[in-house]
Specification:
single chain; about 60 residues; 2 helices; mainly alpha
Length: about 60
């Protein structure tokens, strides 16, 4: 059974609220050759490049503490 908001529009009420969106992701630029190498390693390890970077960075930051 498909529902359409238009069927219930007259029953809706106006709402007002504030949204405070904070990004939880930060992007950093890396050189193309590094990205290519990273992708190759990620494929070999059966990870996405994002997961591999996350794991490596967490390990390195732990070492530096």
């Amino acid at each position: 059974m498909n529902r359409d908001l238009a069927d219930f529009w007259e029953k809706t009420k106006e709402a007002s609220f504030e949204v405070d969106i904070k990004s939880e992701v930060t992007y950093y630029a890396i050189e193309k050759d590094m990205s290519d190498q990273l992708q190759e390693i990620a494929v070999q390890k059966d990870f996405s490049a994002d997961v591999l970077i996350h794991l490596w960075m967490r390990e390195k930051l732990k070492e530096l503490k």
